[in-house]
Amino acid sequence: MDIPLDAHVRCLDGVGGESAAVVLNPVTMVVSYIVVKTKEHGHKEVLVPMTFVTDGSVKEIGVKCTLEELGQLDPFMKQVRVKSQGLDKMDAQALAGAESQSGVGFEDFSFGGTGSTELVEREAIPETDLTVRAGTPVLATDGQVGQVDRFFVAADSGEIQQIVLLEKHLLSKKDFVVSVDQIDRIGEEAIRLKLSKHEVEQLPRV
């Protein structure tokens, strides 16, 4: 199944938004959600489970929900309240993770002294997963070769089989197909390949 980024997401009753990112496990190479930026509902980003995806092509992803149901899905970002006394942003995010893992709310953590509270945002995804957005750089062993454009995944499991690498030039662009065994690792900042720039140029194109 083709999962393009920056593509229309078609609900049962119309286009509901655009695919902004995928949520995946970098160890198992399985995509669990598509992050969709909705057309309505304040253009918020929601998590669409892969079980909702019915089909995908170069420019469009089909999902089995209505426009209204799309807007009711879990938000991609959520706000958590923390006490600001002695906490910087990194501390707050770590504490947010502790809450998620332990089930203990922030009001149950003890803090020395008194202080105001503040809201911080974090991605509402499993701790084992990460987010890959449209335009994430793809790096060969000797430098950047382009950006991720699409994912090909198994329809039944969401397991990544291939990615499509977009190589842009001033007056042209090329799409190369990279198999999963040619990927060294996937991170939020970049996708790293086991191939050199020269080897990338020999890959099949679409």
Description:
This protein has helices at about 65-70, 90-100, 195-200, and strands at about 1-5, 10, 15-25, 30-40, 45-50, 55, 60-65, 75-85, 115-125, 130-135, 135-140, 145-155, 160-170, 175-180, 185, 190-195. The chain has about 210 residues and is mainly β. Strands 1, 11, 12, 13, 14, 15 and 16 form a 7-stranded mixed β-sheet that branches. Strands 2, 3, 4, 5, 6, 7 and 10 form a 7-stranded mixed β-sheet that branches. The protein starts with a strand and ends in a 5-residue tail after the last helix.
Briefly, what is this?
The protein is mostly beta strands. The protein contains 3 helices and 16 strands.
Structural class by sheet pairing and helices: mainly beta
Largest sheet: 7 strands, mixed
Helix content: 10-25%
Count of runs of 4 or more consecutive helical residues: 3
Low-confidence stretches: 104-113
Query: Any idea what the radius of gyration is?
Result: 19 Å
Strand content: over 45%
Name the overall outline.
globular
Count every beta strand, where a strand is a DSSP E run of 2 or more residues: 16
- Distance between the ends: 15 Å
Mean pLDDT equals: 86
Secondary-structure element sequence?
A: EEEEEEEHEHEEEEEEEEH
Descriptive key words:
single chain; mainly beta; seven-stranded mixed sheet; 206 residues; 47% strand
Topology:
Blueprint: E1 2-4, E2 8-11, E3 14-25, E4 30-38, E5 45-49, E6 53-56, E7 60-63, H1 67-71, E8 77-83, H2 89-102, E9 117-123, E10 130-133, E11 137-140, E12 143-153, E13 160-168, E14 173-179, E15 183-186, E16 191-193, H3 197-201
Parallel strand pairs: 2-7, 11-16
Antiparallel strand pairs: 1-12, 2-3, 3-4, 3-10, 4-5, 6-7, 8-9, 11-12, 12-13, 13-14, 15-16
